[in-house]
Amino acid sequence: MERQKIFDNTEVAFQLKSDTELERAHFLFKMISIEPLVKIGTAVTNFAIKANLPVEGLIRSTVFDHFCGGVNEDDCLDIIERMYELGVSSVLDYSVEGKESEAHFDAAMEKTLKIIRFSEEKDSMPIAVFKPTGFGRFHLYQKKGEGKPFTADEQAEWDRVVDRFDKVCKLGKERDVEILIDAEESWMQDAADQLVTEMMRKYNTESTIVYNTLQMYRHDRMDFLKAEHEVAKKEGFLLGYKIVRGAYMEKENDRALEKGYLSPICESKQATDINFNDAVKYILDNLDTISLFAGTHNEESSYLVMDLMQKKNIENADNRVWFGQLFGMSDNISFNLANLGYNVAKYVPFGPVKDVMPYLIRRAEENTSVAGQTGRELMLIKKEKARRKLK
Predict the structure, then answer these.
(1) Rounded to 5 degrees, what angle do the CA atoms 257, 295, 363 make?
(2) How many Å from the N-terminal Cα to the C-terminal Cα in the chain?
(3) What are phi and psi for residue 26, nearest 5 degrees?
(4) Residues 385 and 309 in one domain
């Protein structure tokens, strides 16, 4: 089939990148492809930031500018509008991690509310996102999920977490901005899942506003999806799911080994791929009651969604089906899909350079560990550089 080659079109993929930006991308992915270099670079960067060495300028002009939109929302506007001219929407992602105070949780909520208000005015930003641990302490989710009783103070703290979720989802409903809620480690996820389902029950009545995230490297997620679907059908609300493979594999396996329980992670990459594709099929079979946000950098899975949509006569621009990739990665998927009229959104992280470093380090480590990902990026960049030389 001719369109099976659409992701090889580098002219469409990199049309927003200048020659200089293409060179920078080539340099970065070359560095990321060398695993020992990533480990050393991570350690040196962490040390430099903690020691307050003047490295922010260097980080800003290299890895930060490639993977992030800017240090604040306004900083991101130029790239958001330029991507939207080519049909790619943006999900502004306040990527500050590891903060644990009530003041920080309130600030993250206010930042998300601001983004929703911001999004309402811009067609280019139809979706907002937040992490559960951006709105409350990890330990609190874990304790809640394990069914352990809260102290009076913890209960009051949890009530504030629920209130933050509610304020964001309520505003999303009022302003018709969809809300993606990320998934995190399995041992805190049960409480987050219950809370997100509660938000869906409340706000996904006429259309899908609230989306949970399913990490399909967990072997229990298909059963969870089906069970949630039964509840939603019975109670008459709509479901939304962002389907991803997952981002905490080593941590999950290490903890399971240390504590002596069966790891929640699928036994192989192939099993994860099957799980991911099964979830996509299930949702597209039930599109009248479940909306899909396919968060994937995998070309085969992207083709699968396209093929199923075609077989089921689902229009490319049907708002119940979205594709999503991270800013700075898989432009060959994002821009070629948008070129055919599919709904595509890039996650655009932003925040102060220092605070966004944990996110950037995870991106570098993830690219190093995902077989073929970095090699594919490099191959496409080289192909585009060669194409431009021939012009």
Answers:
(1) 60
(2) 28
(3) -60, -45
(4) no
* 96 pLDDT above the threshold of 60: yes
Asked whether the predicted pLDDT for residue 203 surpasses 60, the reply is yes
* 209 contacts 173 by C-beta, under 8 angstroms: yes
**Which domain CATH number covers 159?**
3.20.20.220
Of 317, 335, 350, the one marking the end of a domain is 350
Same domain, 75 and 59: no
| Tens-digit pLDDT profile for residues 247-262 | 888 899 999 999 999 9
Could you give the 3-state DSSP secondary structure of residue 88?
Answer: strand
Tokens of 23: 């060179």
The tokens of 109 are what? 């909520």
Q: From CA 263, how far away is CA 177, in angstroms rounded?
A: 36
Q: Which domain holds residue 375?
A: 1-68+356-391
- Whether residue 250 is found in the same domain as residue 368: no
Cα separation, 155 vs 161, in Å, equals 10
Q: How many CB atoms lie within 10 A of CB 150?
A: 14
Mean of pLDDT values over 346-367: 82
Q: Could you read off the pLDDT of 136-185 as tens digits, one per residue? A: 999 999 999 999 999 999 999 999 999 999 999 999 999 999 999 999 99
In a shared domain, residues 236 and 362? no
Residue in the structure block whose two tokens are 């329980």: 261
24 shares a domain with 154? no
**Relative orientation angle of helices 221-235 and 186-203, to the nearest 10 degrees:** 20
Nearest by Cα to 327 from 74, 149, 88, 37? 88
> Residues 244, 268: contact at Cβ < 8 Å?
no
Q: How many CB atoms lie within 10 A of CB 61?
A: 11
- pLDDT band with cut points at 50, 70 and 90 for residue 271: very high
Residues 158 and 285 in one domain: yes
Higher-confidence residue of 52 and 200: namely: 200
Do 297 and 211 fall into the same domain? yes
* Structural domain count, the chain: 2
Tokens 């800017």 map to which residue?
Answer: 70
The percent of residues in the chain predicted with pLDDT above 70, rounded, is 96
293 and 382 belong to one structural domain? no
Q: Is the pTM of this model over 0.90?
A: yes
